[in-house]
Amino acid sequence: MAKLNKKSVDDIDVKGKKVLVRCDFNVPMKEGKITDDNRITAALPTIQKLIDSGAKVILCSHMGKPKGEVKPELTLAPVAKRLSELLGKEVKFAADNEVVGENAKKAAAEMKDGDVVLLENTRFRKEEELKCKTPEETEAFNAFCKDLAALTDGFFVMDAFGTAHRRHATTAGVADFVKNSAVGYLMQKEIQFLGNAVEAPERPFVAILGGAKVADKLNVISNLLEKCDTLIIGGGMAYTFVKAQGFEIGTSLCDDEKLDYCKEMLEKAKKLGKKLLLPVDAVTTASFPDPIDAPIETEVYDIDKMPADRMGMDIGPRTRELFAAEVKSARTVVWNGPMGVFENPLLAKGTYAVAEALAETDAVTVIGGGDSAAAIKKLGFADKMTHISTGGGASLEYLEGKKMPGVEAIQEK
Ligand code: AMP
Fold first, then answer.
1. Separation of CA 116 and ligand 1 centre (Å)
2. Looking at 54, 154, 195, 393, which residue is catalytic?
3. pLDDT by residue (tens digit) across 123-179?
């Protein structure tokens, strides 16, 4: 197992202490109701551990992008209610648009050991996301961090993997103003699985990347090429690579300014002796479906015979077999990004074929959140994966080999 050298909730003595815990409760909502509570359930082990240890547990999180303004539809009140149900005990919601105003202070002061309080959406405060580019911004950011720290008895636990790649007041800043900081179980689990898969994989290690744009995944491609044995590229981003090899790609998605980069990566793969697999055929349409899930006529072409007026929208049947066979031979697989416009059932076969191949292998399988995680869940394969990350953007940055502010901020063991 990759070792995480940071203090965890097991390393701090929290009995009778007020502890601030940063969770990721950024759950999807519809008409005031939570439509998927995965992120809440993922946070339960850390919260339960702190309750059982006799801590006074003060939870905080952001939801959506209110950008420093109070948006009533983005209140965390429904999360408190759902949390109460899941924990089987009252979670008091500190209704306080200033997050750490009088109501929050009062709620914290009245806590008994084992009590749980949830603060309001941290992004109702603009200080949460200040970039600290001027002395004034730094001062305001630090003041907010200090107020958060002052609610506690000097304890901060970071368990919001989904936002750990951002340096915000509640994900990293506050750690500088408390005596004790630690990561929660969710952070520990995410980092160990992602870290292990990338840094110490059982080989062969196959990485699969998809999604729309090459530009979004430049560093991921480069970093994974160094770490893996085979890099598979599908989805919209594959066509820029196909064009870089000199083939016609019709009206498929293309990052023209990234053609040289793709050539570089093809060279890099050759130099490193790594396999870089691209689609050998494509499911094409005449145009982009509108709406995205509308019925649409499709035609399959070999990748070197693509007509100029067709758009590559999914990997073709031969590619599905090629990619699935590669997954079969792997001992570790990391996957991020769909193989096609999977929102349309007629263009989802490639994404589903990869999901199925992952479900069938007994290799270590790590899913980097986002669309690939959604596809795995939709197919009912979730329990067949070794690990499904709760953070799309965060896991991608991790795969880039970047250090995460929310991890760096935590004290070492
Ligand atoms: P990303 O956010 O970069 O992971 O990309 C996900 C999006 O990429 C999904 O909404 C897919 O519909 C889209 N996508 C995947 N393959 C293609 C393709 N061949 N052409 C256009 N869009 C695609």
1. 40
2. 393
3. 999 999 999 999 999 999 999 999 999 999 999 999 999 999 999 999 999 999 999
Report residue 314 as tokens. 């999914």
**pTM for the structure as a whole:** 0.88
Q: Atom 15, ligand 1: which residue's CA is nearest?
A: 340
Residue 114 is among the residues annotated as catalytic for this protein: no
| Residue 370 annotated as catalytic | yes
274 classed as catalytic: no
190 neighbors 214 (Cβ within 8 angstroms): no
H runs (alpha helix) in 88-184: 102-109, 135-150
Residue 58: strand, helix, or coil: strand
Clarify whether 166 is annotated catalytic: no
Q: pLDDT-derived band of residue 3, with 50, 70 and 90 as boundaries?
A: low
Question: Closest Cα to atom 4, ligand 1: which residue?
Answer: 211
DSSP for 170-239, written as a single string: TTTGGGGGSSEEEE-HHHHHHHHHHHHHHHSPPSSEEEEE-SS-SGGGHHHHHHHHHH-SEEEE-STTHH
The 3-class secondary structure across 254-299, one letter per residue, is CCHHHHHHHHHHHHHHHHHCCEEECCCEEEEECCCCCCCCCCCCCE
Residue nearest to atom 5 of ligand 1 (CA): 211
- Residue 167 backbone dihedrals phi, psi, to 5 degrees: -95, 90
